[in-house]
C-alpha cells in the first residue's frame, strides 16, 4: 500500500494559506457560506463544534484538532450546538497585511482558531477528490488529538501571531504538511470497500494495479495485464476493482491519464500530440475525446488557457 499511497500523496499539489485568526468567547457561532476553495480550521486553544450546514453531523473539536472542508461547503463553527450563527463576513475585519481577524466577545470561555484556505491543483481530473468526504476530521486510534498535528498548529500560530520576513512562506509549507498528514491519516484508516478507491489501497492486489497505473500511465494497460500485476484472474480482478474502486479499470485509467496530461499541458512546453503519446493514446483524436469527457474542454483550449 505504501507505494501507491505515496504516488497519490505526491501527486496532490496544493497551495495553502491562512486567511483569518479567530479570538472568540462564548457564546459565538459563525456560518462560512460556500467558498470557492477548500477550507480548514485548526483549534489553537479552547473547544468548538463544526458541521456542514443543513443536516451535517456535528464534530466536537478541542485544542490540536483540525477540521477540513475539501470542497469549501457551507459550514458552521460554534461554541455549542445551540448557539445561533452569523455570516463570517459580518464578524471579520482585515488588517493592513491582509490577515483577517474574527473576533467575538461574548464573555464566556475562550476559543482561538486558525482558519485557512486550500487550493488543489487539477482537482477536476484528479481521482482523489471525487472520493473525499465533504468534512474530514481525524484523530489517533485511541481518540486523542494527534501530537504531530498539535505541534504543527502551534508552529503555525507562532508564525501568524509574530510574523517576521519569510513567515508567509513558512505558514504555506506548514499548511501543506498539515493537510497531507491529515489526508494520509484518513486514507490509512479506511477499510476495503470504504471510501471508494482510497479504501481499495488497503487491498494488496488492487493496490499493486493502481500503483502500476500511477507510475506508468503511458503503458498499454488492459484489464488482463492489470490482473497479472494484481496476481488475480481477469474476471476476479475486474469484479473486485469495480466493487472497491467504484469504476472499471478502463475508466480509472482514463481519469488518471487525463490528470497527468493536464499537468503536462500546464507546466511543460509540450504539444497536445506529445502529451497524448506520453499518456498512452495512439491518436490525438482519441486523446481529445477522452480529455473532453473528463475535463469538459478540449486539450488545446486547456493548454492555451493555462
Protein described:
The protein has 306 residues and is α+β, with helices and mostly antiparallel strands. Helices cover 45% and strands 21% of the residues. It has a six-stranded mixed beta sheet with strand order 6-3-11-1-10-9. A hairpin with a 5-residue loop joins strand 9 and strand 10. The longest helix is centred in the middle third of the chain and has 22 residues, at 167-188. The protein is globular, with a radius of gyration of 22 Å. The relative contact order is 0.13. The model has no long low-confidence stretch (mean pLDDT 88).
Count of helical segments?
13
Assign the CATH class of the largest domain: Mainly Beta
Radius of gyration using CA atoms only: 22 Å
Characterize the overall form. Answer: globular
State which percent range the strand residues make up.
15-25%
Mean pLDDT: 88
- Overall strand count: 11
How far from one another are the termini? 33 Å
User: How many structural domains can be distinguished in the coordinates?
Assistant: 2
Strand order of the largest sheet: 6-3-11-1-10-9
CATH-assigned fold name of the largest domain? Jelly Rolls
Secondary-structure-based class equals alpha+beta
Largest sheet: 6 strands, mixed
- Please name the CATH architecture of the largest domain: Sandwich
CATH superfamily of the largest domain: Regulatory protein AraC
Order of helices and strands: HEEEEEEEEHEEEHHHHHHHHHHH
Low-confidence stretches: none
Amino acid at each position: 500500500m505504501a507505494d501507491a499511497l505515496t504516488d497519490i500523496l505526491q501527486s496532490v499539489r496544493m497551495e495553502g494559506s491562512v486567511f483569518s485568526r479567530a479570538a472568540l468567547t462564548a457564546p459565538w457561532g459563525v456560518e462560512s457560506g460556500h467558498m470557492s476553495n477548500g477550507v480548514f480550521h485548526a483549534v489553537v486553544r479552547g473547544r468548538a463544534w463544526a458541521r456542514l450546514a443543513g443536516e451535517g453531523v456535528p464534530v466536537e473539536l478541542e485544542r490540536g484538532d483540525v477540521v477540513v472542508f475539501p470542497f469549501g461547503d457551507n459550514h458552521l463553527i460554534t461554541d455549542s450546538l445551540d448557539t445561533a450563527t452569523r455570516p463570517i463576513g459580518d464578524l471579520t475585519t482585515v488588517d493592513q497585511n491582509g490577515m483577517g481577524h474574527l473576533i467575538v466577545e461574548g464573555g464566556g470561555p475562550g476559543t482561538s482558531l486558525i482558519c485557512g484556505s486550500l487550493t488543489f491543483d487539477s482537482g477536476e481530473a484528479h481521482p482523489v477528490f471525487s472520493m473525499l468526504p465533504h468534512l474530514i476530521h481525524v484523530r489517533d486510534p485511541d481518540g486523542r488529538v494527534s501530537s504531530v498535528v498539535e505541534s504543527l498548529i502551534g508552529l503555525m500560530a507562532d508564525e501568524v501571531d509574530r510574523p517576521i520576513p519569510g513567515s508567509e512562506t513558512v505558514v504555506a509549507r506548514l499548511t501543506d504538511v498539515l493537510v497531507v498528514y491529515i489526508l494520509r491519516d484518513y486514507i490509512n484508516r479506511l477499510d476495503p470497500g470504504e471510501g471508494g478507491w482510497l479504501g481499495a489501497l488497503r487491498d494488496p492486489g488492487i493496490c499493486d494495479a493502481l500503483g502500476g497505473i500511477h507510475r506508468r500511465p503511458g503503458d498499454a494497460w488492459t484489464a488482463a495485464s492489470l490482473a497479472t500485476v494484481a496476481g488475480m484472474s481477469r474476471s476476479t480482478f475486474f469484479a473486485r476493482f469495480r466493487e472497491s474502486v467504484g469504476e472499471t479499470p478502463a475508466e480509472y485509467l482514463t481519469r488518471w491519464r487525463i490528470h497527468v496530461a493536464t499537468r503536462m499541458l500546464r507546466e511543460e512546453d509540450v504539444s497536445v500530440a506529445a502529451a497524448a503519446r506520453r499518456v498512452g493514446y495512439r491518436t490525438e483524436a482519441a486523446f481529445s475525446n477522452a480529455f473532453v469527457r473528463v475535463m469538459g474542454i478540449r486539450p488545446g483550449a486547456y493548454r492555451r488557457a493555462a
